[in-house]
Specification:
single chain; mainly alpha; three-stranded mixed β-sheet
């Protein structure tokens, strides 16, 4: 922040305090941000397209149980301040494409970072609700990298079930036996539902597809976005 040379000492002090506050406190939720001085090298993928990212240790430790375990113990990663990941570099970078966001959800589960995982789940939902599309071609990837009761699987099945019953989608050739089984069960369970009159479960704000702990708070509540979304929803509903 630049200062006017004509400002007096008191004004300079106030400006400095304001600038410092801007750096240390998130503007909307008043959560403290402490980056610390320790830097961690995260090497994403060990093949030819491997990339290296430098990340503040405090951010990793405070948000991921995976990184906390690796960086706070007597492990090699902690001593060398370096953590290898097998994921594609595009997953770790800031890529807004829906397929990459699906990989972000899977990465969030591996890193045991529920806030990142749940936020990454909501983002493609918002994107596809606006565009009308959904990366169904990623279902085999989701099923290959998640467990049987995973909520990301549930999201894909719900989306496919809803649009199939609406006559919008047909089953594609790339589905696996496991995905077809879950879709078939979902369709059978909903055969008596009047879906034309209902709202799709992925079209309304909820924690239906989140994995945060039952006793814990949703990331929206933690970071002050829940009220904003509620206000935005009410605004859309007004005639």
């Amino acid at each position: 922040m630049s200062h006017d040379s004509s400002s007096d000492e008191s004004s300079d002090d106030d400006s400095s305090k304001e600038s410092s506050a801007d750096l240390e406190v998130a503007p909307k939720n008043n959560l403290p941000i402490n980056f610390g001085s320790r830097m961690i090298t995260v090497r994403v993928s060990h093949v030819e397209d491997a990339e290296v990212f430098a990340v503040h240790a405090e951010i990793l430790i405070n948000n991921s149980e995976f990184f906390r375990a690796a960086l706070e113990g007597e492990w090699k990663e902690s001593k060398e301040n370096a953590v290898p990941l097998d994921d594609p570099p595009a997953v770790f970078a800031k890529d807004k494409g829906a397929p990459s966001l699906v990989q972000c959800v899977i990465l969030g589960e591996r890193l045991l970072d529920s806030d990142f995982r749940d936020a990454s789940t909501d983002e493609p939902i918002d994107m596809t609700n606006s565009s009308g599309g959904w990366p169904v071609e990623n279902m085999p990837t989701v099923y290959a990298q998640t467990g049987e009761n995973n909520t990301l699987r549930k999201l894909f099945v719900d989306w496919y079930k809803w649009h199939t019953l609406q006559g919008i989608l047909k089953l594609e050739a790339y589905h696996t036996e496991e995905t077809l089984r879950d879709i078939a069960f979902a369709l059978a369970e909903s055969r008596h539902e009047k879906l034309i009159c209902l709202t799709a479960p992925f079209n309304k704000p909820s924690c239906r597809y989140h994995q945060h702990r039952k006793e814990g708070k949703c990331y929206k509540e933690k970071f002050g976005t829940a009220k904003e979304e509620s206000d935005a929803t009410k605004k859309k509903e007004k005639p």
